Fold:
Amino acid sequence: MEKNRAQWGSKIGFILAAAGSAVGLGNIWKFPGRAYEGGGGCFLLIYLGMVVLLGAPLMLSELSVGRASQTNIVGTFRKLGHPCFSWVGWMGVTGAFIITCYYSHVGGWVLRYVVGYAAEAPKIYGDSLGYFYEMLGLHADGAASFPWLTLLFAGIFMAVNAVVIIRGVESGIEKFNKVGMPALFILLLVLLTRAVTLEGAKPGIEYMVSLDWSKVTFDTFLAALGQAFYSLSIGMAIMITYGSYLPRTENIARNTGLICAMDTLVAVLAGFIVVPAVFATLGAEQIGKGGGFAFVSLAKVFQQMPGGTFFGVLFYLLLLFAALTSCMSLVEGIVAFLTEHFAWPRKATTIAVCAAMFAIGCLYTCSQAAYPIKGVWFDAANGVSFPAFCDAMEFLTDRIMIPVCALGSCLFVGWVWKPEKAVAEIEQNGVRFALAKVYTVIIKYVAPVAILTILVMSFATGMTLS
Ligand code: PHE
Structure:
């Protein structure tokens, strides 16, 4: 199996692909709202601390575990340590599967908005909330219908992913990212220039650099930590799988730094696009979090901004590239596992798995507004509850599977495989890893305690903490 394993064709190809996985809806869609909520500059500092202190060491661990094992996520734990730990791999793949179900559908909405801004922007401006609900199958008169057009867009988004994955690691994922990531950076800079030069943008910029610690609570730290893990694609099958395609000559410590830096830079720039633009056009109180925000509130921003429709198309194109490169990393993690573990053929596996994830994702889109499809949830604050299926899906992955899988990887590297082996793997290219001691302390003690805290707190506080 190992002899025929795929490898990245070039160093920059790997870095762009891993950064492509990390930079996604989390950076451009979720981060700005969270940064606003967390007090602007304060949140930026806390977030930065989380990335440096916990995110980077965890990414480094995942990449080195993957490269050392040269196999998929489940095989990794079996090969390097103890078969007991293969549950971490199973949880990672299952989490990646569930995330892809909904990620691909949000990707479909984004595609729908690219077309929407290009073809019928006045309709979006006329009633942005109505347009959003209509997209989800809920009409102004309260009637529901099957959102087949939106599902078609999600199907197209998924099909693009499948085509890239079938083409393979080097000629599919790497090639796509080599074009997609530079395009994303260019779009980001154009939008940044537009946003910060808007009249009235200054208070927004000032807010983003202000240090008002009165808005910071314990939740801010939890939100920053959860956001950092999600944003860096940690705690899923991804970085282990991408690391397994790396040659031994690569400097993984430096690459980790670069990937984390790029991911954080995109998130911060997105913050400096969205927050000042909303301040300039709508006023601060309109900044919200999550789903509707990227689709509903931003419509008014583009409506009021000079050249807004054009910049609207660009913004959704930016989101589209970001979502595509992240989604394909998720699909790769799953396909790499299935093809290696069960010796299934790559093409048929990709098609089957993508079709299944698309089908489950239809429940995600339909349960947003049009149909009362419910999931089940349990936490200490509310006991058993029956939230919308879509919320339950996101909670399951963000609140449980990602942290549990990250905790499992930490414990595995810290206590089973041992940090000395990780350091030896990191130093394979002949360069000494200067931060080895700090890394060891973080991976053995600091990270597990921090992750356990997130898990316990989110169980205790229930579904409200976002
Ligand atoms: N990091 C991606 C984002 O920021 C999401 C993601 C999570 C991708 C986990 C892969 C694995 O949107």
Notes: The longest strand covers residues 377-379. The pocket of phenylalanine is lined by residues 21-22, 24-27, 99, 230-231, 233, 236, 238, 326, 329-330 (CB under 6 Å). The CA atoms of residues 336 and 342 lie 10 Å apart. The chain has a mean pLDDT of 90.
